[in-house]
Amino acid sequence: MNITKDPFLEWFRNVSPYFHDHRGKTIVIMIPGDCLSQGMFSGIVSDLAILHALGVRLVLVHGARLQIDEELHQKGFVSKFHKGVRITEREHISSIMKAVGSVRWQIEALFSSGLPNSPMYGAKIKIRSGNFITAMPKGIIDGIDHQMTGKVRSVDGGAINDILKENGIVLLSPLGYSITGEVFNLSFADIGICVASTIKADKAIIFNDDGAIYDRDNKLYRELTLAQCKEFLDGSDLHAPSNSYFSLRACYSVCQRGVPRAHIISSRDDGSLLKELYTRDGDGTMVYSDSYEVVRQAQLEDVSGIINLISPLEQKGVLVKRSREKLENEIDYFAILEKDSLVIGCAALYPIEKSNAGELACVAIRKEYQKAGLAPILLAYVEKLAASRNITEIYTLTTRTAHWFLGQGFVEVEVDALPASRKALYNYQRNSKVFCKKL
Ligand SMILES: CC(C)(COP(=O)(O)OP(=O)(O)OC[C@H]1O[C@@H](n2cnc3c(N)ncnc32)[C@H](O)[C@@H]1OP(=O)(O)O)[C@@H](O)C(=O)NCCC(=O)NCCS
After folding, report:
1. Which of 315, 401, 430, 432 to mutate to test the pocket of ligand 1 (most atoms within 8 A of CB)?
2. Residue ranges making up the domain that contains 229
3. Which of 252, 269, 292 is the endpoint of a domain?
4. DSSP readout, 49-84?
5. What does the pLDDT look like over 106-163, one tens digit per residue?
6. What pTM does this model have?
7. Helix (H, G, I), strand (E, B) or coil at 27
8. How far is the centre of ligand 1, averaged over its atoms, from the C-alpha of 336 (Å)?
C-alpha cells in the first residue's frame, strides 16, 4: 500500500519532542522597548501566550530606551551617555517613570485583551509585576557620576518563583527601588541577567533589532561556546553600543552566571521565538555554558595554546624552556586537555631510545583548573598511550613536584636507574629528582 505522508502529522510529530523538552522549564525573555514600536509586537505577545499554554514558565523583562528618549525629547531634556549607558539626572526620573510605565501598561493590555486576531484568542493569562528588584546607584565610573542610573542589588527570587508556580507570567520593568526608597533607572539586560541567575532559569532569550549574530562572511553563528563568545566580543567588529554587541554581552554574562543557554533572536522576524525553541536549528544564535573537558592527542594548531599554558611555568623555572620550533617538532609526543577550545592542560611522553621506557614531561594544568583531579585524567591517557606503544615503564624528572608524582604511583629512583641514553643527557646542574612508574 502506498502511504502518502500527511504534512500536518509529520510536522506535529517533529515538533512534539520540543513540547516535552520545554514544558515546566523557566525562560527569562528580554524584550527591548524598540520592539513595541515595530509591527511585530502583538505577534510576539501571541507567541509568548502559546509558550505559556505549552507549560513554559515565563519571566519577561522589557526595556524602554526608545520611549524614554521620546519622553525626554518632548520635555526638552537631553540625555548624556557614557560608554552607551544613559546618565540619568535626578530631574529626568519622573519622565523616565512615565515612559517605562506606559510600556508596561501596553504590554499588560495586550495580554489582557484576550489576544484577538491571534491563535491564542480568548486565552486568560495572569501577568504579575511588583517590587522584585532592589537597586543601588551605579556610582561614579571613569570620574562620571551616573546619578539615578542604577544596577541590580538583589532579586526577590522567592516571590518570582511563587508567581511562576501559580501559572502566572512575571513582567519586570527597567526600574528598581533602593532601600532608601529612591527609584533608579536600570538596564533591562542587567535585570534579565540577575533574575535568570537568581531563579536558576533554564534559558535566557534576548530579542535583538539586528537579529542573530553573523561572521564577517555573513555566515550565521548558530552556536557559540562561552570561550568562543568571549573571543568574538573581544576581537570582533561588534562594538558597544551596537545592539548586537549589547545582546551578545548579555548572553555571555547570563551563561557565565550559570544559566546553561542564552539565545539571541530577531525582533523583526515573525515567529522567531517559536522557531528558535521548536525547530531543530532555530534561526538565532545560541551561547551555551555547559561544557566538559576532552583529552586528546595534540596537533600543530595547539602549539600556541600550549605555549600560553606553559610559558609562565617556564619563567618560574618549574618547567624546562621549550622554543616554539621545538614544540612544533615534538607535538606528536604531546597530549592536551581541552575545554571550550581552550588548552587547559598538557603532558608529553617522549620515547627513550634503545629502551622500553618513556619520559613523562611538561605536565601542567592551568592555574584556575588545578586541584580538580584533571592532571590524573591526563596521566591516565598518557599511560594508556604508553602501553599501546609497548612502553613498560615511565620516568619523570622534577625539581618541585615530587610529592604529586608520589601520589600518582611513582617511586623515587637514582639517576643511575635511568636508561643509558637518557642518563647521558641528565642535567646535573638542574639536579632534578628522578621518579619511575612501572606500567
Ligand atoms: C602538578 C599539577 C600538574 C597537578 O595538577 P592538578 O590537576 O591540580 O592535580 P590534582 O587535582 O590531582 O592534584 C592536586 C593536588 O596536588 C597538589 N600539588 C600541586 N602541585 C604540587 C607540587 N608541586 N608538589 C606537591 N603537591 C602538589 C595540590 O596541592 C593538590 O593537593 P590537595 O588536593 O591535597 O590540595 C599542577 O599543579 C601544575 O600544573 N603544576 C605546575 C606545573 C608542574 O609542577 N608540573 C610538573 C612538573 S613536570
Report:
1. 401
2. 16-292
3. 292
4. HHHHHTT-EEEEEE--HHHHHHHHHHTT---EEETT
5. 999 888 876 666 666 666 788 999 999 999 999 898 888 889 999 999 999 999 999 9
6. 0.63
7. strand
8. 16
